[in-house]
Design brief:
Elements: H1 3-13, E1 24-27, H2 34-44, E2 51-53, H3 81-91, H4 108-121, E3 128-134, H5 138-148, E4 153-159, H6 172-196
Parallel strand pairs: 1-2, 1-3, 3-4
């Protein structure tokens, strides 16, 4: 594969920002403790007063997929991604009162939409938010969350789990994950863009 092609895909899919203090840290659902561990670290360092773990379980599997790494450390019988993430956050020192739980989302679009609904109900309208997600998932996460929070500035805090910006094109797993993201970005975002037609955002 040509290096320019690799670089172009890498820079589009994998996002990372220099972090600043924000109003909230958001974590889309999943089964890796590394995401809430990173979020807990950011909370301890004072980057935001609230953390929002989001997720019920994968809509394709119909149940919690199970802990994908460090199972000896997180061995409880979790039933939801949010419950799992919450346990990791508490173990990482996050105060219970700083965790706002979203427990219904089953895919990325719902992570964003249901998190928006939750924060609206809490009276929290973030001007700035940190999005803590898998590195190869960061572009799609950002696009969904930005659709749902058009007035919010997002900062990406990526977590690399197995597939990284340095190695994705060297393994079948990496190719599946990253090129799969390109496919989903096209098919999933057509309806989102269509919905913007005629709106103020669509005229930009």
């Amino acid at each position: 594969m040509k290096q320019r092609m690799i670089d172009d895909i890498t820079n589009f899919v994998f996002l990372e920002d220099e972090l600043e203090r924000a109003d909230v840290i958001l974590i889309p659902g999943g089964s890796y403790p590394e995401l809430p561990e990173r979020a807990a670290q950011l909370w301890r360092e004072g980057y935001a007063p609230y953390v929002v773990p989001s997720g019920r379980y994968s809509i394709t599997l119909g149940k919690f997929a199970g802990v994908k790494s460090k199972p000896e450390q997180y061995a409880k019988p979790y039933t939801t991604e949010c419950g799992f993430y919450t346990d990791v956050l508490l173990a990482g020192g996050v105060d219970q009162g700083s965790i706002l739980r979203e427990e219904e989302a089953q895919f990325t679009a719902q992570n964003a939409r249901f998190t928006k609904k939750l924060l609206d109900a809490e009276g929290i309208r973030p001007q700035k938010a940190i999005l803590c997600c898998k590195g190869y998932h960061s572009r799609r996460c950002l696009m969904y969350y930005q659709f749902c929070f058009p007035e919010t500035d997002f900062l990406i805090a990526p977590v690399c789990v197995n597939v990284t910006r340095e190695n994705w094109y060297r393994t079948d797993l990496g190719l599946e994950k990253v090129l799969g993201e390109l496919t989903r970005l096209g098919t999933q975002f057509m309806p989102e863009w269509q919905a913007l037609k005629g709106s103020p955002e669509g005229s930009v």
